[in-house]
Structure formats: C-alpha cells, structure tokens
Amino acid sequence: MNSVFILDPARCIGCQACVHACGECGTHRGVSMIHLECMDRATTVQTTPQVCMHCENPTCAQVCPADAIKQTPDGVVQSSLKPRCIGCQNCVLACPFGVPKYDAGPDQMQKCDMCYDRTSVGKRPMCATVCPSEALYFGSMEEWRDRRQGTPVNTFRFGGQTVKTKVYTVMPARSERIDIRLTDIAGVKR
Amino acid sequence: MLREMDRKGTANGLAASLLLLAAIYFGSGQLRHFDPALIAYTSATVFAVFGIVYRYSVWLQRPPTEMYWRRGWQFFLRPAQLPKNLLMLARLFWNTIFLQTFIKRRSHLRWAAHLLLSWGTIAACMVTFPLVFGWIHFEADPQDPAAYQAFAFGFHAGTFPAESPIGWFTFHILDFCAVAVIVGMALAMRRRVSDPGATSVQQFSMDFVPIILLFSVSVTGLMLTASVTWMEGHNYSFLALLHAFSVIITLLYLPFGKFFHIFQRPANLGVRFYKEEALRTEQAACARCGVAFASRLQIEDLKTVEEQLGMSWQYADGTHYQDICPTCRRKMLGANQLEAIGGPGYL
C-alpha cells in the first residue's frame, strides 16, 4: 500500500458523508465506525472526524487481555478477532484517540480498519472517497504535497507517552509532532 | 528453543500432562482396559494438553490478562455475592457457552454454523476421549451374547441389546457428530468464500486450516462407518490409518491455532463478573467534561496495567490521560490542530 491517509480536522464541514459511507464497508456492513464530533456546540460549528490512526505499537492491542487485536503486515490495526474478544472494553477506554466501539449485542469491540477490503486491493477507504473537503485524504504523499499546504505529522505526545501512527494529521509547516494538550475547545478562537 | 520456553508455562504444562497420564492409568484399571493400538491418539492428546496449558499459562502472565483473571476470581468468590454469582454463572453458561446467543446477534447463519461445529466437536470429544483412555469400555454380556455391557471407570454402568435403538444410537453417536460438523463447516466455508469482509482479512493458517482439519476428521470417520456398513470392511485398515492421521494432526494443532479460543473465550464469563462489580461501584467522571464514562475500578486497573506495560500517560500537572473520556479524546486531536493553526479555518 503506497497511499497515505491524511486527516485534516480543520477542513471538516460536518456533512456526515463519511459517517454514512463508512457503514457501506464490507468488513462491518451497516455499522459506521468513523466518529464525527461537534467540537463545542455553544461556541463553534467546527466538527472533527476521527478514524483509527493505526498506531505502530497500538495501545488497544497492548491492553487487550484476550490478545484479540492484531495488525496486518502493512500496519493496519484490525478489529478484534471475533473468536477471541471477551468484550471487556479496555481498548475503548485506553485508545488515545477514542476510536474503538463496543457493541453490547455480540459483546465485542469493532473499529475502523481502514476499509481493509478496499485498501488491501488498492481502493480508497469509503470515508476518504466521499469526503468533499479532503478533511479525510487517501492517496499519494506527492499529490498531497503538490496541492496542499502544511506538514503531515504522525507523531503524537500525550503527557509522557509518545505515539507514532500510520495515519497523518495536517499541521503547520515545519511541525514535527503534535503535543496533545488538554485544550479548552471554547477558547480556540482566531 | 528449550531455553526460550516459559518456566511457569512448562511446569504447568508438564503437571497437567502427568495428571492426565495418571488419570488414564488409574481410570483404565491400571491399563487393563487401555487399547495399546490407541497409543498414538493418547500421545497426541498428552502433547495437546501440555501445549494448551503452556499457552494458557503464558497468556495469563500478560499484565491485562493477569489483572482480569485475578479480579474475575476475586469478585466471583466474594462470600456475600457467591450464591448470586453461582446463579449468574449458570445463566451465563447456558446463554454464552451452551446456546452461544452472542453469535446469533451477529448473524443467524453464523450462529447455526458455530453451534453445529462446536457441539458436534465437543460431543465427539466427550465420546472419544473416555473410550481412548479406557475410562469407558464395552463387553459382551456373558449371560446374553446379543447384549452389551457398558463400564465406566471399571464400574458396570448398564446393559443394552446390541441390535436395539439404544445400541444403534450408541454406536453411531460419532456419525451424528460428523454430520453436524460437516453441515456447520459447509455454512462456515460458504461465508469464507463469498463474504467480501471475511475474504479480505481471513488467513489460511487461522481460518481455513481448522475447517480443513475438521472436515478430514469427519469425512474419514464417516468413511469407516460406510466401509463397515455397506462395503464389508473394504479398505478399513487404510481408512482407519487415514482417520488416525487426521485426528492426530488436529490434536497437535489444538494449542497453536484458532482452536485455542475454545479455552480462551470462556474468560468472557470472568469479565461479566468484573462488569457487575463495576456497575455497583463508583463511576469515573471525565477530567475535562465531567461526564461519567466508566467505572473507577476499570480506570484505576487500566492505569496499573499501563504502568506495568511501561506506558506513561501522565501530564506534568498530574492529570492522567486515562481520566479523559473517549469523546473528549476524539475532540482533542481537532482542538490541538486548530490551536496550532491559529483557530478555525484551515491551512
């Protein structure tokens, strides 16, 4: 897989096309795995999409007592293995990006798997295919650099913990990593 | 390779294997009822027991697994809750293990496939292992040669006419099991080759090998019956060898592949007791939005596990990222990006 996934929350217009397209994915048919959050309804119309960032050393897999979360050879973190997942929700609570979802019916975790049925054969994930503002981009890094400004970054710092991911996030030029501070969303104004 | 083996796992595996050997020795009347022709089956079973217990012991040493294992027993065995917990365990066993209702909620077809595969296999094991170990054996009744006597651990368990519905059913239980497994396997295989989601993530070693193994065991088993019933025992020796080979390969595969979930998945029962306790106790509120999002018990246990795993999610001001709810975590990435680029708008 030579394409990269680049997330640019600032470009999200909250249209929910990604939410509906996600449910069409063959690996979790009918259930949308992408999250679309309103940042702070009282002060801003800004929304932010959240896909799985596919960490290099996934926290969800490390805290899983059933050893049910595996990575593909190309670094995509898969949904829990159905025969193994024991529905404890450790992954839901430990993921630094708040990605995994717990479904009480089958008593198991499911998450965004970068539409592996599509990306493994060279197609774009459903969400990036339909996103009209390129808040969700999937394609070559060269094409992205030709058309867009900023720097795609895939290193995050949460307190004393560094997390490196397969999915990039757009940051101002020359940024090397994103230090995730517990920002007051209402206070983020131009 | 031996040096790399886990000590605790090796010790537990050896202990379990020795226990099984002792049970075979005493259960078969000091090997009086043990058929030496079945030594290969027995050896493979002893190896499988070692492998399963070894892997289970190593698995239990992972920090999150060890935490749930300890907590699960702690909450289950709490004296004040024990009667209620025993009732809950019976209910959980019925729904989760016997009826496997959690699979029905995924798909009725998958549920049917798994019920047939699992109960076909379990019933076959419950018949085969005691027979192989000499725990159960049959003898012709000396008073009536047309009748069979059944013995369990050397004790007379009953007599039945060989040419009766009970006799016919008893001697064909494994055939019913084989048919159930083949039907379940066909349903599973249909999904494996036609479902785009399944085809993209499945692996030959994890998803097809178990199906192939169960198919070969079931079909060769049925061929033995066919040989005796309709072919006057034609090729019986060769078929018996083929059947033994497929069963032994399956037993040797047991600790390594997908079949290990048979022993691992029941840990879900312990998680249910953990969740019961979590519901009864204090809830943790998010350090950002103040909304309760999980039990304090699980959040504190996660912090412990993360520390054991060498993670450090604590900020300089003492705030722990584990105290932030998943919803706020999802907002943090966008908020920090917006802050970096100077507010709403984009680069």
Describe the structure.
The complex is a heterodimer of chains A (190) and B (347). Chain A is of the alpha/beta class and 190 residues long. Chain A has one domain (4-187): 2-Layer Sandwich (Alpha-Beta Plaits), CATH 3.30.70. In chain A, 16% of the residues lie in helices and 23% in strands. Chain A has helices at residues 17-22, 59-62, 90-94, 116-119, 126-130, 141-147; strands spanning 4-7, 35-38, 47-50, 101-103, 108-110, 136-139, 151-158, 161-171, 178-179. In chain A, the strands form three sheets. Chain A has a five-stranded mixed sheet. The longest helix of chain A is centred in the last third of the chain and has 7 residues, at 141-147. The model of chain A has no long low-confidence stretch (mean pLDDT 93). Chain B is mainly α. Chain B folds into two domains: 2-270, no CATH class; 282-341, no CATH class. In chain B, the strands form two sheets. Chain B has a three-stranded antiparallel sheet with strand order 1-2-3. Chain B has a two-stranded antiparallel sheet with strand order 4-5. In chain B, strand 1 and strand 2 form a beta hairpin. In chain B, helix 2 runs parallel beside helix 10 (236-253). The mean pLDDT of chain B is 94. At the A-B interface, helix 3, strand 8 and strand 9 of A face helix 3, helix 8, helix 12, helix 13 and helix 14 of B.
List strands and helices in order, with pairings.
The complex is a heterodimer of chains A (190) and B (347).
Chain A (H helix, E strand, L loop, with lengths): L3 E4 L9 H6 L12 E4 L8 E4 L8 H4 L27 H5 L6 E3 L4 E3 L5 H4 L6 H5 L5 E4 L1 H7 L3 E8 L2 E11 L6 E2 L11
Parallel strand pairs in A: 1-8, 7-9
Antiparallel strand pairs in A: 1-6, 2-3, 4-5, 7-8
Chain B lengths: L6 H21 L11 H22 L2 H14 L5 H17 L2 H4 L3 H25 L3 E5 L6 E6 L2 E7 L3 H30 L1 H6 L2 H27 L5 H18 L7 H4 L2 H14 L2 E3 L6 E4 H13 L17 H16 L6
Antiparallel strand pairs in B: 1-2, 2-3, 4-5
Helix pairs in contact in B: 1-2, 2-10, 3-12, 6-7, 7-9, 9-10
